[in-house]
Every structure is written in structure tokens, then in C-alpha cells.
Amino acid sequence: MSTTKRMSDEELALAYIDGNNSAFDELLSRSQDKVFNYIMYVVKDEDLANELFQETFLKVITKMQGGRYAESGKFIWWVTRIAHNVIIDHYRAQKGRKVVDLNKENDLSNLNSSSILEGNREGQISNAQVLSDVRRLMKALPEPQREVVFMRFFQEMSFKEIAEQTHVSINTSLGRMRYALMNLRKLSHQYGMNLTLE
């Protein structure tokens, strides 16, 4: 087994900064699928995802070579944050389009699904009713989860904006949303609600 394969992501990142190019090759090998899948998950367009993926890693290389990599415990989180910013910048360049348009592809939760929770089209109801039901159910969520749901769905803020507003990382915001959706699913089943978009 090569030396680089035994190293942690953070060790590889620091080794690359010190001039070990094979360390970056190993980092890319470990992270490329996760980063590409994240970008595809958001933009839902393979050609665009490939373009933004390449731009992301160009920025990663530039930042690392410029000494702007801050060892924070998780290299993949740092790269994913860069990918998110690249996506945001792309849509801002497209005349201010939102990363997620609530009317596009019927996807409130940015989860590549016609349903906020279920991923099916059974019992479809209006988006306004969905948001009304979500507002009722979110009262039962812990405050951090309730906050991110409110900012995302009702204030239409990006996860970057939510992270900045709440002084946490984008990944923390995404994690809170993930748990909020899990809890909303349980609550919707408990109260017999079907949170599916038109």
C-alpha cells in the first residue's frame, strides 16, 4: 500500500501544500464522487455539474497553493463548501436565479424529488398547502431545525446565507435541514399529512 493511501485527508492536504502532487491525486480520488454527487444533487444537470465540478477543483488547487487551506478537521467539508459557493456564483451570474426555484421541478427540499418528504406523487396538494402544513408541524421541531426550515422555505434563503445568518458552517445548516426533514416525515405520518408538491 502506498504511503498516501495510509494518510488522512488532512495529512494529504498538508502534504500537497508542501509540494507532494501525488497527495492531491489521492485526495481527488477520495473526494471526487462525493463532491460531484453533491453538485448533481443541487443542479440536476450532468453537463453543468461537470463544469462546476471542474471549477470547484480549480478553486481548491488555487486556494491550497495560495496557502488558504485552513485545517478544520474535514477536508471534504471544506471542498463541499467551495462547491456550494461555486454553484451560488453560477446562479448569481445567471441573472440572480436562485439555486433552488420553488416552482422548478416541484422540489422544495432540494432533494431531487417531487415530494418534500416522500419522493412520490401520490395525493399531491398545492405548494401553498404544503407550506401551511410544514409551518404547523415545524412548531414541534427543536429551535435550530425550526430556524433553518423557516429560513429555507419561507424566506427562500440559500444555505450559504443561512450559515452566515446563524453563524454556523454550511454543512451544519445542511445537517440541521436533514434532521428537520426526518422529523417532519415522522410528524406528517403521525398526523396523517401528505407533504407532496404539485
TrEMBL record:
InterPro entries: RNA_pol_sigma-70-like, RNA_pol_sigma-70_dom, RNA_pol_sigma70_r2, RNA_pol_sigma70_r4_t2, RNA_pol_sigma_r2, RNA_pol_sigma_r3/r4-like, WH-like_DNA-bd_sf. The keyword Membrane does not apply. Residues 133-172 form the RNA polymerase sigma factor 70 region 4 type domain. Gene3D superfamilies: 1.10.1740.10, Winged helix-like DNA-binding domain superfamily/Winged helix DNA-binding domain (1.10.10.10). The keyword DNA-binding applies. GO terms for molecular function: DNA binding; sigma factor activity. SUPFAM superfamilies: Sigma2 domain of RNA polymerase sigma factors (SSF88946), Sigma3 and sigma4 domains of RNA polymerase sigma factors (SSF88659). Residues 29-95 form the RNA polymerase sigma-70 region domain. Keywords: DNA-binding, Sigma factor, Transcription, Transcription regulation. GO terms for biological process: DNA-templated transcription initiation. CDD domains: Sigma70_r4. Belongs to the sigma-70 factor family. ECF subfamily. This is RNA polymerase sigma-70 factor, ECF subfamily. It comes from Prevotella aff. ruminicola Tc2-24.
